[in-house]
Amino acid sequence: MVIPQFFAGKSILITGCTGFVGKVLLEKIVRDLPDVVSVYIVIRGNAKERFEDDIVGSRIWDVMRERMGAEQFDRYLRGKVFPISGDLQKDQMGLSADDLKTVCERVNIILHCAASIDFRERLDKAIESNLYGTLHAFEVAKRLKNLIAFVHCSTAYVNSNREGWLDEELPVLDFNPEEMVELIMKQDVANIDKITPNLLGAYPNTYTFTKAITERILALKRGDIPLCFVRPTIIGGSLKEPVPGWVDSVAAVGAVMLYCGVGLVQFMKGDGRMVADIVPVDMVANAMLAVVPSIANQNTLQIYQVGTSHRNPVAWNTAAHYVSEYWRNHTPKKSIARSSFNFHTNIMMYEAHFFMKYGIPSVLLSLMSTLTGNEETKAKSEAFKKMTKAARLITDTFQHFTGHEWVFSVTTLEKIFQEVLDAEDRVRFNCDAAEINWQSYFCYFCYGLHKYVLKEEGVRPPTELLNNSLITKSDMNQSGLLQWIFADVSWAYTSYRHVTQTPLPPRAPVEIRSLVMNSPRVQMAMEKVSREEGVLVSEIERRAAQIMDRMQSNLNIVVVRVIGWFLKKVWRKLYQGIHVDEKGIEQIRAAIQKSPVVLIPTHRSYIDFLIISYIFFEYNLPLPHIAAGEDFLAIIIVRWFFRNAGAFFLRRSFHGDALYWAIFSEYVQRLIIDNQPVEFFIEGKRSRTGKSLYPKMGMLSMIANPFFENKVHDVHVAPIGISYEKVLEGELYSNEMMGESKTKESFNGLLRATKVLNMNWGRINVVFAQPISLKQYTDNLTRDMSSVRTTLPPSPPAAVASSSSPNIAPPTSGNISEGDFENLSSNAGNTRQPGASFDAFNNADDRRMLIQNLGYQIVADLQKSAIVTTTSAVATILLTFRRGISRDELISKVEWLREEIFARGGDVAFEGPSDALVDHSLKLLSNLVTKRRNMYEPAGGQHTINYKKNILVLNFYRNQLLHLFLWDGLVSCVLLSLRNRLSAATAGSSAASKEQNESIDQQSLLQDVRFLSKIMSTEFVNKPGMVTDEFLMTQIDKMVSRGLIARQVNGESIRYSIKNEAIVGFIGNLFCPIIEGYMVAFLTLFSIQPEITIKKNQLLQRMGWFAEKMYEEGSLNYYESCSMELLTNATTLVTEMKVVQKKKHTEVVGKRTTRQNNKKERKPRRSERNQEPEEYIQLLPPYQEKEGQLRTLAERLSSFRKTLPIRHQVSDLRRAIVDDFPILSKL
Question: According to the UniProt entry, which residue ranges have a biased composition of type Low complexity (predicted)?
Fold first, then answer.
């Protein structure tokens, strides 16, 4: 690297180190130029004391202190940086003789940053600070024995007496600068104020005026000194270093942003369309160091401008939008009004607005204080006058910069970076304004003001995801009355004009229809159905045409614009923000230009159908074709808009209907072959519980087939995490969880739902995971599996995967819907020869394995990309402390939970002060939570319907983060159950004996965790074959390292016990409701008589009734254990565990299964064949015995409950359970 090598062995003198730029410059030298011998900093007054207070005590060193350790860093800093007392307004900078001698002998480079940046300072004082101070430093520079460079930090606005494009040249003055200085310094104080406006001329303030004079006089007095002027524009907070948004003072544009944040300044004079040339302070520091090698030891004067208007201009309107948006989402505690920021180009309009906003209230307050004589009113009146004066001052100060426009050339600085510095220098000492993301920058700038200036703790750094809200994104450039009124119409009409092009242009719907209907697949299906049903092919063709009419989308851009306009208004009514991961958007854009892209969002709300298309419309991406259920066809008008917005409709199930399957699969694959984006939900349905659902592989196999059939070179699959602070369907979900039927979609229902427009639903966060290349995924899996298979004979894929490659998910039919893998490929069965490698192109089983592994990978990516919202954290704490928790304790617990989520790799939408975030969440959950005597708890009486519904909705939000704590939770449940079981047995025992009894050996721990993981397997999506001893030990080791559990090693004996009881108890408590719900399901199985079948729905109703009764009688601790979704999953689990078996609709309730039905069955009609057969449940023989395996299973699961069940020493477990739960006898 050029710069570190150049500075190695050299000593530097810096002035103005207690200021904003000087402090950042010093930190950069200490951090990135370790071979600098020493840094001398000139400080006025008591240098050592101010060095300790202003420099060493600054939070600018937080990063280095954390990296090096506090003690080591302090030693390093004091050994590198030496403060010396001085005064730049005195000759020889006011240095003592010894200090001056040291400086002259040792210093090689002077970086002069000291200046008075008070724009309204008296002219003679400004000359003393800015001119004389610089000249005194320059005099010292001439005395240095080994001076190689003098760098003067000036300002780009030395040329602000002109406008337009400004090159790097000395300021053009219409007077002799030395004579002007002499004239000014001869004036008395009273006369200076009078003549200042005339003397300034076109300059806006004394700062820029004196800086221009300083440059001219320095150029005259330079001699042969290597000199350069570094001219920053308006300096703002840091871009990256030492941390994004670093700022520790209120000056320049920072003052405007801060006053906007607290609501003091809401409008300014100026034109918002003008360029705001704001440059990050770390770029200024980088430039001051980077230019030194180019002037070192040369008799030269160089000028380097550091700004953004040349390479990356940003308008004041844009800055105002991003700034006010941050402050609206992170309201400071000291705010006096809601943040708002705009500009008045008309001075009369500004004055009228100012008078209405400040003048009238000030007069009224003053009048009231005079009439009442009240001291408090007088104090308020004086405070308001000060506030009015501050608002006027900041507006007048910046009027020149918001009302004029300059473009400062940075050509000379760019030349240095390209010709002098190497690639690593250009990264570490970056000055390229083109790399600034203005939205992110302004968000971090405001965050820095919030944290370091307002000093409000608990404010988390913003994430780039949360910076951008689509609701107001298009409003920032609107100016003028008509544009404001018709902003949404203008946006909808002008947007989506420069759309990213796919490799192939889209086909017309008529052409797609023709290709689908005439495809070999559909033609063969029609002939097959014609033969099977004995009807003419023409009749089948008519039926196929009806299917196509009902299914096909008809994307119409005019309709899309209307929908975009409508949704823009709806979003404003519903949501505070729709925040999008813009980096993910660019990844999608790049993928779309290469190959077909398949979008797979999470599915928690009907809004999911709309939001992705809206985002693509906003960002000029090709609109996706969306797979939607035929339920929407029942909603008049809506179905027409959906179809014309790109939706195509499919049945919920079409297993057994060969014609429908052929048409649908051909249609989907045609879209893929034509490189059109396709969107579908791999979970199949909305998750009513907030947890991820198992992947459905049918659509995934369809979109993959064109790749495996070599019809496309690649397919990119893009998982998308959509998280809601509050879902619209929360109440509907709670009704369904309580056993009510799903509400059918209808137009009347849509009209009734308009009441939600008057409610606050918080924010939506949309995160795009890294798109998965199907080609690359196939290559990677082929390489991994081939190394295993080359040495093994042919065997079932499940056996290969589970025995030799535990990270590869074997095909398991239990988690795949029937029909998902129909017509997977033209090859049937496993055709792999002994020793053959993995081949997903030609072997059906290999392809099936790949599709399934890909499905699980997608769900894992969906979980990673789903942001945990504040409402989820608050709901989790409220359900843990459902008897009541104070606000302060709630805030403390939420802060702790936030850190635990981060520690486990979760991404959390936490920005702003913790108390404000908690209050925001409580407001969103106000219909679910009540405040009683300063304690928050779920609303409603404990056994009321309203309370139960509220618990289920809060549980929905809590479930969104449970997967992050799954393995910690299972280990915690095992250790907690061990403590509960042994607490009674060890009563009165010694402490050593108790400690031994409350620990568990490693093998037993692994067995119990594996058992619980099997119980939870239908609740949480984990790839089959993932839960191995090695994986579990990794999770246990993490808990040991976090200090949650303790490991005791005694020879070959390894035992575990609880170390942090509070946290282990909290995490274990998260999973107790699930354990209790499954326990209820197991107990309900005792009501099934041996050899008797029962309808599945009837069994579920019985489970729900039993759970409700147990809860009402106090035998269940959690109402969420009564959730019908949980009980349904439990039924699926006992089927997979071979506790029960499913039978079809030919069975009869109450009839013995051994009885035969000898009646001749008629051939079912086509409509009957398409109906799903009704399912019946029967206990399998091993679980029919009174003292059989069902008892063992129920007892084992029951042992992990939070409260242990009562035990009876009787032989008949059914009677024992009836004694514990008398209501079971009613079943």
Answer: 798-813
Q: What sections of 81-176 are H helices per DSSP?
A: 97-106, 123-126, 133-143
CB-based contacts of 98-103 (< 8 A; 24+ apart in sequence): 100/140, 100/143, 102/40, 103/13, 103/40, 103/140, 103/144
For the four alpha carbons of 231, 234, 236 and 240, in that order, the dihedral sign comes to: negative
Residue 1200 in tokens: 């992990």
Q: Are 654 and 698 in contact (CB under 8 A)?
A: no
Question: At a CB cut-off of 8 Å and minimum separation 6, what does 466 contact?
Answer: 329, 579, 765, 909, 911
pLDDT tens for residues 728-773? 988 888 888 888 877 676 656 665 667 777 788 888 999 999 999 9
User: Which of the pair, 990 or 1016, is modelled with greater confidence?
Assistant: 1016
- Of the two residues 251 and 371, the one the predictor is more confident about is 371
- Name 201's Cβ contacts closer than 8 Å, sequence gap at least 6: 161, 174
Give residue for tokens 């992990």: 1200
Residue 207 confidence (pLDDT) above 80: yes
Strand partners, 601: 720
Domains defined along the chain, listed by start: 3-239+277-312+408-437 (3.40.50.720), 495-775 (3.40.1130), 866-960 (1.10.10), 967-984+999-1149+1172-1225 (no CATH)
Report, in this order, helix, strand and coil percent for the chain, each rounded to 5: 55, 10, 35
Q: Which long-range contacts (CB under 8 A, 24 or more apart) does 524-533 make?
A: 524/662, 525/658, 525/659, 525/661, 525/662, 525/663, 526/659, 526/662, 528/658, 529/658, 529/659, 533/1166
Task: Give the pLDDT score at 201.
Answer: 85
Element (H, E) at 1125: helix 1124-1136
- In this predicted structure, what is the pLDDT of residue 979? 78
1046 pairs with which residues across the strands? 1057
Of residues 1203 and 154, more confidence is placed in 154
Residue 226 and residue 150 in contact, taking contact as beta carbons nearer than 8 Å: yes
Q: Which pLDDT does position 809 carry in this prediction? A: 43
User: Average pLDDT of 807-825?
Assistant: 40
Q: Residue 144 corresponds to which tokens in the numbers above?
A: 């240095």
Look at residue 230 in the predicted model and tell me its pLDDT.
94
301-306 sheet: strands from edge to edge: 81-85, 38-43, 11-15, 109-112, 149-153, 227-232, 301-306
Cβ contact 836:793 at 8 Å: no
Q: In what order do the strands lie in the sheet with 935-938?
A: 885-886, 935-938, 929-932
In angstroms and rounded to an integer, the radius of gyration of the C-alpha atoms of the chain is 36
Residue 1127: the pLDDT is 93
Which tokens sit at 616? 């693509």
Tokens of 582: 């813009």
Backbone angles phi, psi at 81, to 5 degrees: -110, 130
Nearest to 608 by CA among 628, 631, 584: 628
Is 763 buried (19+), middle (13-18) or exposed (0-12) by CB count in 10 A?
A: buried
Query: Which H helix or E strand runs over 597?
Result: strand 597-601
pTM: 0.75
For 630-641, what is each residue's pLDDT tens digit?
888 888 888 899
Residues 6+ apart with CB under 8 A from 131: 181, 210, 213, 214, 217
Q: What is the pLDDT of residues 626-671, one digit of tens each?
A: 999 888 888 888 889 999 999 999 987 777 788 999 999 999 999 9
